[in-house]
Amino acid sequence: MSASRVLVLNSGSSSVKYQLLDMSDGSRLAMGLVERIGEETSRLKHTPADGASREWTGPIADHDAALKAVAEELSRDGLGLDSPQLAAIGHRVVHGGKHFTEPTVIDDAVLAEIERLIPVAPLHNPANLTGIRTARALRPDLPQIAVFDTAFHTTMPESAARYAIDVRTADEHRIRRYGFHGTSHAYVSRATAELLGRSPEEVNVIVLHLGNGASASAVRGGRCVDTSMGLTPLEGLVMGTRSGDLDPAVIFHLMRVGGMSADEIDTLLNKKSGLIGLCGDNDMREIRRRVDEGDESAQLAFDIYIHRLKKYIGAYYAVLGRVDAVAFTAGVGENASPVREAAVAGLEELGLAVDGELNAVRSDEPRLISPGDARVAVAVVPTDEELEIATQTYALVKGSEDLT
Ligand SMILES: Nc1ncnc2c1ncn2[C@@H]1O[C@H](COP(=O)(O)OP(=O)(O)O)[C@@H](O)[C@H]1O
Ligand SMILES: CC(=O)OP(=O)(O)O
Ligand SMILES: [Mg+2]
Q1: Which of 25, 62, 77, 149 is catalytic?
Q2: What predicted TM-score, i.e. pTM, was given to this entire model?
Q3: Exposure string (b/e) for 235-274, b if CB count within 10 Å is 16 or more?
Q4: Which residues form the active site (predicted)?
């Protein structure tokens, strides 16, 4: 029997999400999450397909330790990394620059390139690299595949991908809009077409990936034509801890008048801004609880978040010309019905509306939340970055096996 299992590691700045899938029948053998890495209260939650979840709380110092803890949990279920049934390990890598447009077998040169891109993905690429190095050390014989967040966005036209700055300077420093969360935008735009009973080539979709990091994309006939994140994952929507769009002169002002260093401003905009900077909380559940209690700073944070989101819906409507569906996804998009309701409120003239009852339904399935007669479908489509990475990883490994 040939090896058909794929382990996927999605290493975030302070978390690792993972899934072990059997690609011969698409079944999920185990999944889990390590969060709050580097804190005293790190938490590991491991869920085998045929058993109860196991949870563990205690200090996990770094991503290396987190991955070793994951490997141990898998071993306890007889699904350890030493299994001969494992065909490959698929890794989410956030920044692939212009170079990586496809899933890629990781070797030393690929590792060096991912490392070179750290300055433009400081919260993410270092964690991705640690995940890769630890996994390679545990299974040096296995193919390790990188699937890049940036890959889906490489179809953007130059008019959307370039900033209006001096071309030579931009080219010298490779400054352009790369976009992120591409694996999710690809998966969700396809799943939305499926929900509408149409092929991806036929439909235009605005995807709103609203997690802790958040981005919007305009997808025409299955290809990305614009997205809200840019050179780094800082541009665009208001996020949990990131500012999203702002006048770049704010940075010179903070340097010249505020006396802040580049590193201090980097930390301010990436880690102390967005929802947490506006009201002290970055979790939408907590913000909604405070809004319901009449808390003014939580209300203002919510309003700023929605205002920005609505502007992007309008902008991408204009970019696409015709929109068949708007799809909400990721932690906030899948769970926060007040966000979905507020984001499309007042857009009836554009054919966009949400049905209150449908919007209130809780489900893990893709579903429509627009009224039956709506011109544009509004949908909640749960993302599955791990499944998409596994699919791309297995296709690459199988493809190269078939050639030999
Ligand atoms: N039930 C819920 N209601 C509202 N927001 C939620 C809910 N569950 C999760 N979230 C939001 O989702 C965010 C995490 O989303 P996720 O897509 O997992 O992010 P990431 O991959 O960036 O860690 C949380 O910070 C929180 O704001
Ligand atoms: C690119 C990015 O912002 O990823 P995440 O939402 O996982 O932080
Ligand atoms: Mg995410």
Answers
A1: 149
A2: 0.95
A3: bbbbbbbbbbeeeeeebeebeeeeebeeeebbebbbbebb
A4: 149 (proton donor/acceptor)
Distance CA 38, CA 218 (A): 36
d(Cα 213, Cα 276) in Å, to the nearest integer? 12
Class of domain 198-380: alpha beta
User: Could you tell me if 143 and 404 are in contact, meaning their C-beta atoms sit under 8 angstroms apart?
Assistant: no
The count of other CB atoms within 10 Å of the CB of residue 56 is 13
The two most distant CA atoms of the chain are separated, in Å, by 67
The binding-site residues of ligand 1, defined as CB within 6 angstroms of any ligand atom, are: 12, 15, 211-213, 240, 282-285, 330-332, 335-336
DSSP string, 333-390: HHH-HHHHHHHHTT-GGGT----HHHHH---SS-EE-S-TT-SSEEEE----HHHHHH
Helix (H, G, I), strand (E, B), or coil: what is residue 273?
coil
Question: What is the interface pTM, i.e. ipTM, of the complex?
Answer: 0.98
To the query of whether residue 149 is one of the catalytic residues in this protein, the response is yes
Find all residues with CB under 8 Å of 137, minimum gap 6, and list them.
none
Q: Is 99 exposed, middle or buried (0-12, 13-18, 19+ CB in 10 A)?
A: middle
Mean pLDDT of all residues in 323-348: 98
Asked whether this chain's domains 5-148 and 198-380 adopt the same fold, the reply is yes
Q: Where are the domains of the chain?
A: 5-148, 198-380
- Residue 172: count other Cβ atoms within 10 Å of its Cβ: 9
Helix (H) or strand (E) holding 186: helix 182-195
How crowded is residue 102: how many other Cβ atoms within 10 Å of its Cβ?
12
Known binding site: residues? 10, 17, 92, 209-213, 283-285, 331-335, 385
| Residues found in the chain | 404
pLDDT digits (tens, 9 = 90+) for 250-265: 999 999 999 999 999 9
CB atoms inside a 10 Å sphere around CB 216: 25
Mean pLDDT of 295-322: 98
CA distance 234 to 123: 10
Dihedral angle sign, alpha carbons of residues 94, 241, 209, 348? negative
**Using one digit for the tens of pLDDT, what is the confidence trace for 138-155?**
999 999 999 999 999 999
Distance in angstroms (rounded) separating the CA atoms of residues 220 and 218: 7
CATH class of 5-148: alpha beta
Separation between Cα atoms, residue 361 and residue 331, nearest integer Å: 15
| Res. 74 pLDDT band, cuts 50 70 90 | very high
